[in-house]
Amino acid sequence: MMGPAWWAVLVLLAMADAVAGRFVVEKNSVQVTSPESLKGKYECAIGNFGLPQYGGTLQGWVVYPKDNRQACKEFDVSFKGHKSGARPNFVLIDRGECFFTTKAWNAQLAGAAAILVVDSKDEPLITMDNPEDTGTKHLENITIPSVLITKKLGEDLKKSAENGDMVSVLLDWRESLPHPDERVEYEFWTNSNDECGPKCDMQMDFVKSFRGTAQVLEQKGYTQFTPHYITWYCPEAFTVSKQCKSQCINHGRYCAPDPEQDFSKGYDGKDVVVQNLHQVCVFKVANDTGKPWLWWDYVHDFAIRCPMKEKKYTHECASHVIKSLGLDMDKINKCVGDPEADEENPILKAEQDAQIGHGKRGDVTILPTLVVNNRQYRG
Ligand SMILES: *[C@@H]1O[C@H](CO)[C@@H](O)[C@H](O)[C@H]1NC(C)=O
Ligand SMILES: *[C@@H]1O[C@H](CO)[C@@H](O)[C@H](O)[C@H]1NC(C)=O
């Protein structure tokens, strides 16, 4: 089943959009097959939940309901075809007022085969205004696809439907297979630093609001997620400098900027690197025990329980959180290794290697960055 995975991408993009500005979006097309005057392909953004015929097509008649046009309430009409063999009905729904998932759920309950959500403004698809556009309440039970179409196409379809034309639309997923193994793989490039102003706050808001969805999708096998952390290395000639000593671990091999941009107070860059390393190790150990989603709990709980402001951004505080999640502290410590040692840390080495672009995506240099199926979406 591909649907929920695609929805994950949409949710990700929507959330990411809210977090960090504009993102590139991959679009699909819908095809209008009648009336003659509207025949053609139109761009759309498909946000499928539980689509049963992924890789196939779905053809249906377009219905524009008389009321409840935003589908925020349950419908008191049925969109089910009355005879067997009747073509399915796609319900045209206006964007806004409630969650995307609420609309889909209400339409599904009323027997719709798909929803076409008409954008409320002329704008590039898909720019959801804020996380409130998505919602996760009925996510697990939604099986019909949701498609966002442009305001212009929506208005044309409405006019035709209200005129009594037979409006027929073909949804086509054959060209939009995002990944051969039908699972969305994504990376989230982040940072444990919590004192960098609005940018850090936004990252944390993203983690807080996306955690639940990410965990459900991961548990159901629709996504495969990997968190990543950026570090840089200190040029060899400077490894003994004050800057590198305060910003780096393992003798200049892995560094992060000082959180306060002041080497003499508060936490140093190296504290951030060590915490980032803990987070990667939490992911590794959790993933090895088949529970990668515990990373979200760790990052979330650590941010709340161990903030820099309260001087709790420490190994001790991290250990408490790790233990509270039932993760093996010995394994984590082993993974973290000795930050003072003059040697490579295989985990951070792999992180640095992963920073370099490969295939279609470029190097990761801006945080936060999402890489979905190896394409980069960044703010
Ligand atoms: C989804 O469906 C299951 C089984 O019918 C039900 O137990 C669950 O409460 C539903 N969840 C939501 C959010 O509607
Ligand atoms: C996480 O576990 C999965 C399944 O065991 C594996 O394929 C994947 O490579 C692991 N990821 C990392 C970063 O270790």
Which features characterize this protein?
Glutaredoxin, 7-stranded mixed barrel, 10 helices, 379 residues, 4-stranded mixed beta sheet, disordered N terminus, 2 domains, alpha/beta, Glucose Oxidase, domain 1, binds 2-acetamido-2-deoxy-beta-D-glucopyranose
Give a short synopsis of this structure:
The protein is an alpha/beta fold. It has ten helices and 13 strands.
Protein architecture, described:
The chain is α/β, with parallel strands linked by helices and 379 residues long. It has 2 domains: 27-176, 3-Layer(bba) Sandwich (Glucose Oxidase, domain 1); 179-378, 3-Layer(aba) Sandwich (Glutaredoxin), CATH 3.40.30. Helix content is 34%, strand content 18%. It contains 10 helices and 13 strands. A 7-stranded mixed β-barrel has the order 1-2-6-5-4-3-7. A hairpin with a 5-residue loop joins strand 1 and strand 2 (40-46). Helix 4 (198-219) runs antiparallel to helix 7. The radius of gyration is 24 Å and the shape is elongated. Residues 1-26, 50-55, 127-132 and 176-180 have low confidence and may be disordered. The structure holds 2-acetamido-2-deoxy-beta-D-glucopyranose (NAG) (2 copies). One 2-acetamido-2-deoxy-beta-D-glucopyranose (NAG) is lined by residues 137-138, 140-141. The site of one 2-acetamido-2-deoxy-beta-D-glucopyranose (NAG) has 4 residues, from loops.
Helical residues, percent: 25-40%
Portion in strands = 15-25%
CATH architecture heading of the largest domain: 3-Layer(aba) Sandwich
The topology string of helices and strands comes to: HEEEEHEEHEEHEHEEHHHHHEE
Write the CATH homologous superfamily of the largest domain: Glutaredoxin
Task: Name the overall outline.
Answer: elongated
Structure annotation, total helices: 10
Membrane topology: Single-pass membrane protein; Single-pass type I membrane protein
Main location: membrane
Domain PA: 60-157
Signal peptide: 1-21
